[in-house]
Amino acid sequence: MSLPVAPHYKLPGRPTLPLEEHFLRIETMERVLITGGAGFIGQHLARALAEDRAFVRVADILDQPSDLAATEYIQGNLCDLEFCRKIVRGMDTVIHLAANMGGMGTIHEANDFAIFRENNSMTLNIVQASASPSSRVRIFVLASSACVYPRHLQDNTPTDSIRGLREGDVWSQPPPRTQGLYGLEKLVGELILSNVPTSRMQVRIARLHNVYGPGGTWYGGREKAPAAFARKAIATRMLGMSPELEMWGNGEQQRSFLYIDDCIRALRLLLTTDICQAVNIGSEETVTMKELARHAAAAVGLDCASISFNFLSGAPTGVAARTSDNTLTEELLGWKPSIGLADGMHHTVQWLQGEMQSASRKDLESWLKSDVVNLDNDSILFAILLPVTSKRSTSELDCLENLHCFVQSLARTTWRDIHALGGVRFRVRIYLIIDKDDVFLSTGRAEDILLAGGFEDVRTLVYDYPPGSICSLWRNSARQAWTDSSDYFLLLGDDVELLDEGWMREVHDLFQSSPAPGFGCCAFTDISFPGMPTFPVVHRTHLDIFDGKLIPDVFVNQDGDPYLYQLYRRFGASQMLPLRIRNGVGGSSSPRYNRQHAPRWTFETLDNATTTVEGWLTGQSSSVQRLLTLDLVIPSYRIPLDTLARTLSLKSSPTCSVMFIVIIDDPSSLAATVLEQRFGHRADVRIRINDKNLGASETRNRGLQESAAEWVHFLDDDVEPQDDILIEAENAILADPYAAGFVSTVRFPAADTIFKTAVHLSGCTWFWDIAEKMPDSQDLPWGVTASLIIRRNLFEIRFDPEYPKTGGGEDVDFCVRKRDLFVGAKLQGFRAAPKVVAIHPWWNGGQRTYSRFHNWSIGDGRLVTAFPQHTYFGIYPTSAEHLAILLSMSFFCVATASFTSMFEMLKATANLVISNVLYDFFHHVVFQRTSDCRSTISHFFWPIAIVESTFIRMWSEAGRLRGQFTRHELSFGTIGMRFDWFLGRVGPGPINHERRLAARRFWLWVILVLVAWIPKF
After folding, report:
1. In the 3-class helix/strand/coil scheme, how is 310-331 assigned residue by residue?
2. Rounded to whole angstroms, how far apart are CA atoms 842 and 848?
3. Catalytic residue positions?
4. 186 within 8 A of 145, measured Cβ to Cβ
5. Exposed/middle/buried for residue 310 (C-beta within 10 Å: 0-12, 13-18, 19+)
6. Strands (E) located in 319-475
7. pTM, whole model, 2 decimals?
8. Domains of the chain
9. Mean of all residue pLDDT scores within the chain
10. d(CA 326, CA 332)
């Protein structure tokens, strides 16, 4: 919103030029630069010059205000000479307002050197750039200050008559004794400009006196007295308290205050004159601080007669008395203030009430007091939590050598952030963490290395924990640093080397750019373990949320880093920075201690922390929203690089956070190295390689173990998901968030050969697209893991490794157990997600092979004994069982030398195959009239495909019988038992259908056998 300002008043007095000529001169200015134009005076001045149709370039270190009326905005640091050269390029007029300043909460003795150093650097740089021969600057305006005047002229007692300060008073008693180094720097700036060796650039100097008004800083320690008293009066009224206002000093200090509109009017006039000497821009209306406070109270509507004051004698008060003598200014400019203090305070209060109207009670109570800014302590403090040990090293001196390398890297990468002038200041405090029984380090050797490296702010913490209790050291040292008011917390080690300069400002910029500043987690890029957030950084906001506890007690020495990263990932507030770090010991290699993983931290521990963060955000009325977290788990043995690359390029919506977890099950594959080189650097891609071939179940289990998301989407490495699969998965989850999971649609390319068509007709792939066949089902029985979504963080279920490595039955087993737990907890089972689509290529390029279906059935035959509640008695044998009986009888005949009977058994076996082929043909052509749109072969080849489908089905059934036999699962109680693939979800229909098919095939076989035997009779 635009800053409300008071109405402009008619210019009093007689200007040195006609008013029309004043505005004409301004309109003809080609280009104006305002340094510090994002500040209070700068914004008002930019607006005024823009209204005069001038080209206004604003340069400031602050982010661009949304309502800034400038033609161009350039953000940067004026303490950088090259930046100053950039911004003055092409400018005709430079107005230098930029300064590190404020009211008495900032301009006091403790900040003198810091303020002088920064302000002097800015002034020198902008003057040097403006006076450069390559510059075209014609007019340079310096915003000086009333603080340049000698203190002895401002030390009046309340009984003395106050005299206005005249421009020549600066040199009344040389050398000048200005108000602090802030005033001295302003005077030095005036002297520099008076000695600039150029006739091209004219100088204007405006000594500003206590400018106030709407848009000024009003809290935080940099506000001036009018805004401070207005804020306190408004807060008092909003809280319904008795009117007692905090007062620094005794309240008898005297000042004059200039309203912002009058200040802007004076600066505009100054631009149109040829006056090169310094002039006062101030008011001659002098009041005491008590009177100023009463003006504020009156503007708020408080009873001035009932106001009392809480005097703070130890607070900064400045000089005793100061006011402006405007004689010279009125003579040269024809200017004097037109807005009195009462009116100005009224306008200021009106604006400030709008700023404070939605404040919480906590904020209002804090605004009853004014803050003192200490620039040395006001810097951003990074707490480096640094455990150091001489134990478990080859030599005790190794830890000192490692520490020396660390200190060198810390100094090299933080020097600029710590020593740079202008903008945000940074400090480092090292919390040196030492074991109580580490005798070698107890004599201060580690501290000496840190001090020698230039780091004097070191605090040694000695703890007595079992070896390897890194997380306990981390927790306790972080709490100490939090108590010490640290801003950021970073756990490092003595074997770590920081590689990139500027990491402190990068981290700070990231956190401040968050919708909730300070909220979130970022991590360095560990070049020894890329893609893993091994060195996270959090702001003190995190410890505020958790009452000083960095991580829960369940963590011993592992998983604390990913816990923090995954916690804030759920709010879109985790980020891996392109800032490199090298970890000498640990990371993906073996550490110096035994690793102890926190049990189940990705379940209740992470969920409980998420709930805590959500509660905090609600209390803060934050706009940060929780995201849905979804991990794609991709087990891979073949490692098809092109297909995986397409999968890893999938995009999600802004409300869903996705990670890709690829588990390589062939440790000898060279393709794994290529995959890591191409994608291992990405924070959203995690590639893990099994030590040996574990098979489908264990590989998926490792993917589940690597995941910390709420949902996991299993994808086979050879499927090609549609581009919108992540968005459709999110839509399905949001529609049914309490489901155990979602069965998606897996399609095959068009069946353009006899074999491919036969696979469809055999029924081996019937369940792959069950989501499209049963889109409205509220409780699908199961889905294939080629594309299956499951809720990960509720009811931990793992794939049973007893199923074959190549797969078969483990997906059904997993879904059944997962669903039963959800339904038992009054939640939902598996839902259909027909719009979540992936294309599965034909295996081996569509070449004819039956072994895959046979091997699947070897595994899924185990379901009969695993889930007897989902079985039924088949009555009639399957073709495989029937075939096994006939072949067994044939072998018996051979064994007994009954060759005639053997020949009859072989004919019966042949009739069995014929009966299956004939029945399947009539089933598809006559009974079902199957017309499969998935096949593109001509109808001439359909009979051949039907015949082949029979052999695929029979070989699949043979695998099921083989598996049961080799696992010794066949017994009197299991023979003839069939697994209900629909688990009773759709009633007895599927069971009756399977029984009818078996019965018809059996009786057709009987008929064929009888027909073959009839001629003998």
Report:
1. EEECCCCCCCCECCECCHHHHH
2. 10
3. 182
4. yes
5. exposed
6. 380-388, 426-435, 458-463
7. 0.81
8. 19-313+322-366 (3.40.50.720), 379-624 (3.90.550.10), 627-849 (3.90.550.10), 864-1014 (no CATH)
9. 89
10. 10
